[in-house]
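Changelog excerpt

This revision adds worked examples to the README so contributors can see how folded entries look when concatenated. The first example is reproduced verbatim below.
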Amino acid sequence: QVQLVESGGGSVQAGGSLRLSCAASRVDYNRLAWFRQAPGKEREGVASIVPFTAIPYYHASVKGRFTISTDTSQTTVYLQMNSLKPEDTAMYYCAAAIGRVRSPLRTSDYDYWGQGTQVTVSS
């Protein structure tokens, strides 16, 4: 069992920045990721990272604006979000994959999920 606890959401104006954090209860996972879900839309992958390798993978819509990283203990994953846009407004979820990940941003490849943290970007 993996427990994931997100923090750092909030409300900002367009062009602003936020940093999300997710604390994981164990480190034997294959990949960590951030997903988001806007009202009326499907959950989509935003960014993922393989621990101990620091190799990131990003959705095209956030590439160049968002950065995923982990701390040295590999128990906390961050999502630095810059140049935020109103279309980034969503509930953001941290996820961990214990098994094999075939697609870095595919929802079904992840086994554990946090409770979510809301990000609201106003124009």
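The second example, added in the same revision:
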Amino acid sequence: QLQACGGGLVQAGGSLRLSCAASGDTFSRYGMGWFREAQGKEREFVAAISRSGGGATYYADSVKGRFTVSRDNAKNTVYLQMNSLKPEDTAVYYCAADLMVASTVARAYDYWGQGTEVTVSS
């Protein structure tokens, strides 16, 4: 089970940190991803981080240089630090767990959190 939190209302240029806590004792075996879904748009990839041992990270071009994904396997938590936020970042953000790899494709993920809403005002 995944529980995402940390969303909210922020002005453009501001920052937010999303957290996603996982239950169970196999968190380190999962690649973790963040996706977002803006109103009227399809869910899109934001960022992903591989399973423990590598920590390789992947980002959508639209967030590269502004967002940072990280994980703390001791706390069963993955984070998304979002800086220099723009109005176009407004969306519901979802975390997801992938047993195989940290994919950029939503359908590859096995488990999803409930989403946390981020609103960036101009």
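Reviewer comment on example two: The mean pLDDT is 94. Residues 38 and 91 are 4 Å apart (CA to CA).
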